[in-house]
TrEMBL record:
The chain crosses the membrane at residues 6-24, 102-120, 127-145, 151-169, 200-220, 232-254. It comes from Planomonospora venezuelensis. It is a multi-pass membrane protein. Plays an essential role in type IV pili and type II pseudopili formation by proteolytically removing the leader sequence from substrate proteins and subsequently monomethylating the alpha-amino group of the newly exposed N-terminal phenylalanine. GO terms for biological process: methylation; signal peptide processing. Its EC number is 2.1.1.-, 3.4.23.43. GO terms for cellular component: plasma membrane. This is Prepilin leader peptidase/N-methyltransferase.
Length: 262
């Protein structure tokens, strides 16, 4: 049973990842997610069901459209695989806990928003804002069944704290922090606060650390200049996921550095 839950979550992640490819492409363009159906981006030919099996169809078609033979980006199966891996990891982290659906949703949102921010340097309100309600609704059963109202209140408090913190940063340094990041910060605060204040601190610190390291790497390789705008959303989401899986050990390690004799 311990291995079955991550395996099932991985299969679900493949299917969700396939849908996320549609979200990543269409939401920034304000296009419908339902119509038209999946089609080749080059010749617009509709993709048949057997050609739309996550990862396997791309491999069977050798990365090319069945109709026009134009290449189809490897990013499509990579998004599906990344979602599957994240879903499996989240399922292994939470098991059959009632908050599992909420954190699976967070993993899916993390993949979609990261790719969109890389592509267009935006975190669409169409995804971020509804996710506040979805996250709260998915966490509510865990609060009710586990009578864990302290976690729920902590999540709401952390949501307000991170929103206010990022809002202040955006006012002080508007060129370096967008209001899309501010809105995302509140959502991440809700999820991290549920886990504990150590997760909030680790996730926030990791976001700035990872963002700084990524920026330094781009500068060092000449792929960006000092005035190049770089998306911060992916670093925020990566920091939150790092805290999701490792906030406890990281906080304990850092506490040991501060008080080695304790």
């Amino acid at each position: 049973m311990d291995a079955l839950m991550p395996a099932l979550a991985a299969v679900l992640g493949l299917a969700v990842g396939s849908f996320l490819n549609v979200v990543i492409h269409r939401v920034p363009r304000a296009e419908s997610l339902l119509r038209p159906g999946s089609h080749c981006p080059h010749c617009r030919t509709a993709i048949r069901p057997w050609q739309n099996v996550p990862v396997l169809s791309w491999l069977a078609l050798r990365g090319r459209c069945a109709a026009c033979r134009e290449p189809i980006s490897a990013r499509y199966p990579l998004v599906e695989l990344a979602t599957a891996v994240l879903f499996a990891a989240v399922a292994a982290r939470f098991g059959a806990a009632p908050e599992l659906p909420a954190y699976l949703y967070l993993a899916a949102v993390a993949v979609a928003l990261s790719m969109i921010d890389f592509d267009v340097h935006r975190l669409p309100d169409a995804i971020v804002l509804p996710s506040y309600a979805v996250g709260a609704l998915l966490l509510a059963p865990a609060a009710v069944t586990g009578a864990d109202w302290a976690a729920a209140l902590r999540g709401l408090a952390a949501m307000a704290v991170l929103f206010a913190f990022y809002f202040a940063l955006a006012l002080v340094h508007p060129g370096g922090m967008g209001f899309g990041d501010v809105k995302l910060a509140g959502l991440l605060g809700l999820y991290l606060g549920w886990l504990g204040w150590s997760a909030v601190v680790v996730g926030t610190f990791a976001a700035f650390l990872l963002g700084g390291l990524a920026g330094a790497a781009l500068l060092a390789t000449g792929r960006a200049g000092r005035k190049t705008a770089m998306p911060f959303g992916p670093a925020m989401l990566a920091g939150a996921l790092l805290a999701l899986f490792a906030a406890g050990p990281i906080a304990a390690w850092y506490g040991g550095l501060l008080a080695p004799g304790a």
